[in-house]
UniProtKB/TrEMBL annotation:
UniProt-annotated binding residues for FAD: G113, D299
Family the entry assigns: Belongs to the class-I pyridine nucleotide-disulfide oxidoreductase family.
Organismal lineage: Bacteria, Bacillati, Bacillota, Bacilli, Bacillales
Pfam family, one: Pyr_redox_dim
Sorted UniProt keywords: FAD, Flavoprotein, NAD, Nucleotide-binding
Biological source species: Salinicoccus roseus
Domain Pyridine nucleotide-disulphide oxidoreductase dimerisation residue range list: 336-436
Positions contributing to NAD(+) binding: G172, G173, G174, I175, I176, T177, F178, E179, G259
Keyword Transport annotated: no
InterPro entries xrefs: Class-I_Pyr_Nuc-Dis_Oxidored (IPR050151), FAD/NAD-bd_sf (IPR036188), FAD/NAD-binding_dom (IPR023753), FAD/NAD-linked_Rdtase_dimer_sf (IPR016156), Pyr_nuc-diS_OxRdtase (IPR001100), Pyr_nucl-diS_OxRdtase_dimer (IPR004099)
Protein name: NAD(P)/FAD-dependent oxidoreductase
Cofactor(s) the protein needs: FAD
Paired cysteines (S-S): C43-C48
Amino acid sequence: MAQYDYDVTFIGSGHAAWHAAMTLRQGDMKVAIIEKDTIAGTCTNFGCNPKILLEGPFEVLEELGHYKGILDQDVNVHWPSLMEYKKKVINPMSDGLKQMFEHAGIDIHMGHGILQDAHTLEVEGQTFTSDKFVVATGQHSNALDIKGSEYTHTSRDFMDMEEMPKRITFIGGGIITFEFASIAVKTGAEVHIVSHSDEVLGGFHRGHVDKLTGKLEAEGIQFHYNEDTNEIAKDGDSYILKTESGLTLETDYVVDATGRVPNVSGIGLENAGVKFTKKGIQVDEYLRTAQPNIYASGDVLDKAVPKLTPTATFESDYIAAHILGINPEPLKYPAIPMVLYTLPRLSSIGVTVEEAKQDDRYTVKTIPFGERLLFEYKNETEAEMDIIIDDQKRLVGAEIYGNDAADLINVLTFAVNQKVTAQDLSTMIFAFPSPSSGVIDLLKFELL
Ligand SMILES: Cc1cc2nc3c(=O)[nH]c(=O)nc-3n(C[C@H](O)[C@H](O)[C@H](O)COP(=O)(O)OP(=O)(O)OC[C@H]3O[C@@H](n4cnc5c(N)ncnc54)[C@H](O)[C@@H]3O)c2cc1C
Ligand SMILES: NC(=O)c1ccc[n+]([C@@H]2O[C@H](COP(=O)([O-])OP(=O)(O)OC[C@H]3O[C@@H](n4cnc5c(N)ncnc54)[C@H](O)[C@@H]3O)[C@@H](O)[C@H]2O)c1
């Protein structure tokens, strides 16, 4: 190996990279991480972590709403203070992780990495050679190619706003739109969602999506379906959003949330023989690209699995195990949970209700656990879940609507991956009272 500067070099420092980098370093390999922006990538700095922190006080407001007549309701979120709090908690994380990597003996080179060939990378004029590379460059926000696109903002901008605008408009009916709109409307802002189709939140449980959009509408969000945005114009301090059908909306802030695009260009993939499309980098069942000494991991992959932090981490861990020879088997994904962090949340694991309808091995049962678990479930009577059971009475899927849907889906993820039966559940004792033990009790009954 001595012919190369490094055994393994990671392009990108997000979850798709650093878990493997740490494991390989522990395996005594010489490891480098290249990062052009902020160490630790999207989730830590501009995604999951700031998002869930900013949502925290609104979650309290949501719960408060279930105790009308019992708790005083006059509570408001002070956005500028919340933003200060976000900076205090989130900003140091990148440096903390950088120190952890350096302490472990990983070399960090800041700058834009460009592959020169299968073993050479250039970073801001410096050249490094490596036996293996892992391309973990993630994705960036899509920007609609329309007149006035320069007036739109990204999810990253939204999570840096010093003031919440009085009027805010989201283009796109996907995850980011719903998560942010669910927060914005609770500040009293006038919120519009402009969707180019008649379906929002594709892939989520239709009944739960309808229930959620109904609730958000009641809170004040204005939905505009089948509207193709084609122009944004500046008018003094405001912006006018126009659609092909002639809809015009006056607003103070526009978020383009029309998806995310893999970072595959300008990184020299062609020079190194790595195959890719606009959907991402193509890999084999070992996460190796067309150039076998170059792996790819995380959001940048052209794969049908959900592009999430736990997926990126799982892939990163797999690559480390593969390089170290600990796991020579092809990568096999377990069931991957999805959570939409709105208020309330939507979550799912395994076989969906839609899939179950097409397959007579499966039975779907609806459990209105919010109504049934009144004393442990904080008055959230609308909370419910659909479970999918196979012909051997095992839990194979679940979709949940409720404030605790993220934690509950983790319990059910365990149950689905272990193919749990009522008999298995009856061999265990769970803490009581708690939402999860209540749900497990109901589940046990339905699996009988
Ligand atoms: C607003 C938002 C909210 C999200 N919320 C959730 C959530 O709640 N739960 C969840 O599971 N997932 C969430 N995600 C998705 C999650 O953030 C990603 O799946 C995850 O970050 C992917 O990790 P990654 O390492 O593949 O990419 P990233 O974390 O994006 O890391 C890629 C890194 O590569 C760097 N890079 C790119 N090109 C180069 C180059 N040429 N040279 C050097 N460095 C380069 C980039 O600067 C970046 O730091 C969210 C995403 C967004 C945008
Ligand atoms: N809770 C989570 O796990 C979480 C949260 C945020 C982001 N993410 C990750 O980030 C990704 C990106 O989120 P997102 O909300 O940007 O994407 P998305 O794919 O969820 O939604 C994009 C939306 O934009 C619409 N759209 C696409 N092209 C359009 C066009 N030309 N004009 C108008 N609308 C258009 C789509 O129909 C869709 O409704 C997610 O897929 C996920 O991988 C995950």
